[in-house]
Amino acid sequence: MLIVSRSIKFCFGQFVTVRDIVDAVVAQSTGKSAGPNGLFMESFIYACPELWVHFSLFFTACIKHCIFPVSFMDVIITPLVKNRHLKVVT
Asked: Is residue 18 exposed (0-12), middle (13-18) or buried (19+ Cβ within 10 Å)?
């Protein structure tokens, strides 16, 4: 999933730039499991720059028209128990 961060303020007069997309993509870590859509983050990190332009246009259109696909809000959270001191957790 793409997480657009920093202090981007979306309103009807602004848009998502390609630089915003690139910043969000390179901030993601690799080696994670695929999302609900079956795509790995590496698919976006190593994609061609033309895809980032299309993402920019898509997210700008979603914001300007106040419509976001419901499937974009699906997320899978897998809790991981970390025991760093090798003690039994009860």
From this structure: middle
